Amino acid sequence: MTGTTGDTSGAAHGTTGGTDPTGAPATASDPTAPLHLAVALDGAGWHPAAWREEGARPGELLDAGYWADLVTEAERGLLDFVTFEDALGLQSAAFHLPDNRTDQVRGSIDAVLLAAYLAPLTQHIGLVPTTNVTHTEPFHLAIGIATLDHASQGRAGWRPQIASRASDAAHFGRRIAPQLTERDVGDSTSISEPLRALFTEGAEVVRAARLLWDSWEDGAEIRDAATGRFLDRDKIHPIDFRGTNFSVKGPSITPRTPQGQPPVVSLAHATVPYEFAALSSDVVAITPHDRAGTVAILAEVAEAVERTGRDVSERPLRTFADLLVLLDDEPGAAARRKARLDEAAGAELVSDAEVFTGTPAELADILLDRHSTGLDGFRLRPARLPHDLTAITRGLVPELQRRGVFRTEYASTTLRGHLGLTRPASRYAKEG
Q1: Per residue, what are the HEC states of 355-390?
Q2: pLDDT on residue 1
Q3: Global pTM?
Q4: Using N-to-C axis directions, what is the helix angle for 291-308 and 360-371, rounded to 10°?
Q5: Cβ count near 430 (within 10 Å)
Q6: Which of 11, 108, 278, 350 is most buried (CB neighbours < 10 A)?
Q7: Helix or strand holding residue 298 (H, E)
Q8: Rounded Cα–Cα distance for residues 83 and 33 (Å)
């Protein structure tokens, strides 16, 4: 798997007391506390047959205007942020290798460049592109996200993602990745252990990026033509970072951004990625399939936070749950629509996330029930675009607003502000 520089708004986060081990508000005793909503945008939607539905726009999936329509709709719904998927190879129905299917969407555009295009077309919503951290230079990743934060005036986020496919490694020819087998990808725990080294490297990439974001202190740019001083060189620092497989001298070429540290968002299914989130992320999206699973995973995330020694009083970790949603106003209509899509796809929809079919009011009931376990919010995956996105913004959001648990206007100008995260000072800044 982000404006004023002094934005420290926590009002949108609804803090109402103590904190849990992840640094989140203690919502279990206050089920009406405001919650956070994000959407994950991908192609024509998260159902593989979505592109074939009436109202879909398959001919525009590579057009910037299509994405502008989606993101402005998400902003109309006052959502915290949108995420954009990205990959180093063509999409595949298999996790571990390419397929030869021609009946599903294949092909995409660069997520960071897309977010940069959308930045001046939006005013409030956070923009969180996915980038690969296994085969992409950390320096380039860091300045790309920093530039996005400048372009969006403080609304950039970043979803770092490892690349485990041998076919992805072959595109670059710099390293060899073992070919995973069906047995390897049998479940989330089995797959995460063989990938531990990649997650370790990914955490190093995030660490290097954070150092680069701090390598220019606030006020390093003087820009005084009268005295001929453009920079204060004492406020620009090399980072001298050495990872397992790379090193970065620094400093960044991009001055400190409106947020200082754009929020890092990660998706996690098992122990290893929970530890990655505890080390590296500001927001972790988990994938429980029921209320009991939510409670259990939140406990695992809290254990990972404790194991890694994260100080959540200084660096809270926001927890979101992913749900893949099909929403219709008429009871039963979403389930019938899913059955039709499944028939068109030739198989029942399978997802790492829970699949919900129902009305906006029914989904609101579930979100509030899960929210009471201690979740901060939810990242919803619309099964079909734009239908299920507009059902979120024009159906679900008004329902949550009627219940008094979702914002009626943006109270912050930055993604950190939406999430209730303060803007940190550069670690290189001298105290006092």
Answers
A1: EEEECHHHHHHHHHHHHCCCCCEEEEEECCCCHHHH
A2: 36
A3: 0.90
A4: 40
A5: 8
A6: 278
A7: helix 291-308
A8: 24
Contacts of 236 by beta carbon, 8 Å cutoff, 6+ apart? 215, 216, 217, 220, 251
pLDDT of residue 34: 75
Token pair 């740019």: residue: 221
Tokens 């406020």, located at residue: 235
Environment class of 309 (CB within 10 Å of its CB; exposed 0-12, middle 13-18, buried 19+): exposed
- Which amino acid is residue 227, in one-letter code? T
- The pLDDT value recorded for residue 354 is 98
Report the pLDDT value the prediction gives residue 43, as an integer from 0 to 100: 96
**C-alpha span between 210 and 55 (Å, rounded):** 42
| Beta pairing class for 221-224 and 229-231 | antiparallel
Q: What are phi and psi of 357, to 5 degrees?
A: -125, 130
Q: Are 144 and 112 in contact (CB under 8 A)?
A: yes
Which tokens hold the place of 121? 């077309």
DSSP three-state, residue 260: coil
| Residue the block writes with tokens 């390897």 | 184
Q: Do 208 and 241 contact (CB within 8 A), yes or no?
A: yes
Token reading at 26: 């203690």
Question: What 3-state class would DSSP assign to 324?
Answer: strand
> Measured on CA atoms in the order 138, 275, 418, 259, is the torsion positive or negative?
negative
CA distances from 382 to 83, 146, 284, 287, 324 (A): 12, 28, 19, 15, 6
Q: H or E stretch including 267?
A: strand 265-267
Give the model confidence (pLDDT) of 22-41 as tens digits.
Answer: 454 444 435 556 799 999 99
23: DSSP letter: S
> Is residue 398 within 8 Å of 67, Cβ to Cβ?
no
Alpha-carbon distance of 266 to 286, in angstroms, equals: 9
H-helix segments, 119-217: 138-151, 166-172, 188-192, 196-214
Pairing label, strands 81-84, 36-41: parallel
C-alpha to C-alpha distance for 127 and 122, rounded to whole angstroms: 9
Q: Say if strands 241-242 and 247-248 run parallel, antiparallel, or are unpaired.
A: antiparallel
Q: Which of 21, 31, 159, 136 is nearest to 88 (CA)?
A: 136
